[in-house]
Amino acid sequence: MTSPATILIVDDEKHTRDGLRLSLEDEFDVYVAGNLAEALEFLRNDQIDVMLTDLRLAGESGMDLIDQALQLPRPPLCIMMTAYGGVDTAVDAMKRGAYDFVTKPLNLDEVEILIKRALKGRTLEKENVELKKQVERKYDVEGILGQSEVMKPVIEVIEQVAPTRATVLIEGESGTGKELVARAIHNLSGRPKAKLVTVHCAALSPTVLESELFGHEKGSFTGASDKRIGRFELADGGTLFLDEIGEIDASVQVKLLRALGEQIIERVGGSKPIQVDVRVVAATNKDLAKLVQEGKFREDLFWRLRVVQIKLPTLRERKGDIPLLAEAFLRELAELNRKPCKPLSEDALHALLAYDWPGNVRELRTALEHGVVMCNAARVSQKHLPPYLTGGTGILLQKKSVGNGSGASTSSFADLNLEKMERAMIDAALQRTHDNRTEAAELLGLSRRTLQRKLRELGRVKRTVK
Q1: CATH assignment at residue 251
Q2: What pLDDT score does 169 carry?
Q3: Do both 208 and 349 map to the same domain?
Q4: Are 84 and 56 in contact (CB under 8 A)?
Q5: Could you tell me the residue range of the domain that residue 82 belongs to?
Q6: What CATH number does residue 79 fall under?
Q7: Rounded CA gap, 401 and 418, in Å?
Q8: Could you report the per-residue pLDDT of 285-296, keeping only the tens digit for each?
Q9: What percent of the chain has pLDDT over 90?
Q10: 209-229, pLDDT tens digit by residue?
């Protein structure tokens, strides 16, 4: 059963306090105070939902009380009571953050209705905030944006595996966001205050990589003038991200296998075992299983790394996410380049949807930065994007108006709501695939059944099914 709301009545006239208390206590938990000190005592020690305060409190000001109440971590809804009402008083109270005001002599029924309306408004506000959080969580997990069918299982695995200690292998083409996923796993791991240490394995020679990972003792090799702490030790208590794990040499693979299995390392040139507590996340743009078959990667290390596998889709497999990604990148890049944030035009959106993105999300971000920097108009249009998007390597769709279901069209992406954005993407995909719904669904990162449902919702059932 839901607890009744708590009401604080602040008035220096006892009969007013008692009258309000008797009127309201059947439905609410009611507290009364005769001055600022008593009121503040209640506000600091109890969760008050609504405060009714008189304007004048025996030489003190109800306005001052409202000011202090609204500074609390969980401020109450404030309603001003005054016998000196009028427009000026009401406006001043509202400017200070009061929910509303009533004039004396009080109509008790009106006061009760006003309180219930205030409480209902706060409940709706909380529900809206929670709904917004749920939507943001659905589409944005630690900066990983995605609402396409192929991204949903990826996000679900990230959320499920992150709080565990399991080693994770992230597979995907360059530019798909493997490091972003590793960061998300770390941030959601329950170890957010610990370090996330990254090693780009492909950039280091075998000797340097071994020293980088495990450290070395002074004099262990030419040039080792001091003792060096390795990345495993630096990541102790946190996460070690090994990027491009498929590039490591066989000799380093052996030491890495022991470190993963026993959580024990030895520095190069040392003999003392060092215990570490490190969660390892690895990434590769190669087919590790194929490397195992070719004898280029240890099978035992492969299985040790791939406790949980996350395979990231390419951007061409999740084109339905392009508008979402583009909106986020435009905001970020405008701020980064000290430019005003401008929306994407319809022709620019069509160009983005028509291109195959061999460089994936990284390439999309680069293309949009070009657009932000080069834009000198109200919207980022096709002409502001890199020429290759509409040139030899890209296939630009014919510009097409986006209908709203009644024959009308929109002139810019800035005016599109979610339904119109979906319509624009579906139109572009169907146009590109010559109305082949199976191919269009693949292009959008949707199942064919989901695309069929969306077409029905958008009133597009008259298209020929192929």
Answers
A1: 3.40.50.300
A2: 97
A3: no
A4: yes
A5: 6-132
A6: 3.40.50.2300
A7: 16
A8: 999 999 999 999
A9: 43
A10: 988 999 888 766 666 667 788
